[in-house]
Amino acid sequence: MPQSIAILPPLDTPRLLIRQRTLADVDACLAMDRDPEVTRYIAGPWHDPVAHRQFVELRTTRPYPPGLGYWSIRERALPDRFVGWVLLIPDHGVGPDVEIGWRLVRDAWRRGIATEAARALVAHAFGTVRLPRVIADIAPNNLSSQRVATKLGMRRVREDDRDGVSYVRFRLERDDLDFGR
Questions:
Q1: Which of 76, 83, 90, 172 could form a disulfide with 154 if both were Cys (CB 3.0 to 4.6 A apart)?
Q2: Intra-chain end-to-end CA distance of the chain, in Å
Q3: What are the backbone angles phi and psi of residue 84, rounded to the nearest 5°?
Q4: If you average pLDDT over residues 151-161, what whole number do you get?
């Protein structure tokens, strides 16, 4: 019997509809990931259709702690068109830190969508879930994602290497913002 998936709240903004990702979004996620520029800095099973689908479906349906998971992003002006996703999930699947992340279809780049959606997620992380911090591990050459992290107020805390993959860790502490004061 499948486990039930927690319901995540909508995190809509004036321009965006940010709703819990469902299996109905899988094909759009797969299409986005097949663009080599979108996944340029991210390791994954992008060239194996079966493994890729299993990966996305598992990430969509697996149980996460309350308030955590994946949200799909759509623009209010075109609510049927998937433009990407944001996530708030345990780092490496187990935590204790919680990772924030984003991925968009290429024609949604450089329009502020990632920053706007991620800001809604930060507000949820600190205001609703009451996390002490969020982290983001970003490829050293992924300057666009590093700019999003900086716009969120995240600070670069270290460079590291995991399984032969280099990344820059960014962190935002709840105490750095004015939540609950």
A1: 172
A2: 44
A3: 155, -165
A4: 91
